[in-house]
Design brief:
single chain
């Protein structure tokens, strides 16, 4: 639960986006972050 809260606060992701995260979405490069879809279900970018 602690990690969930920290990730939510530090990334600014919405709760439903944080819950949907999988390890394949996590990039350890601090200059790049992506999320697979936008809020409307289309590709983000």
């Amino acid at each position: 639960m602690y990690a969930y809260i920290v990730v939510s606060l530090l990334t600014g992701l919405r709760p439903e986006e944080t819950r949907a995260l999988q390890w394949k979405h996590v990039h350890l490069d601090p200059t790049a972050m992506s999320h697979p879809t936008s809020r409307c279900g289309g590709p983000s970018g």
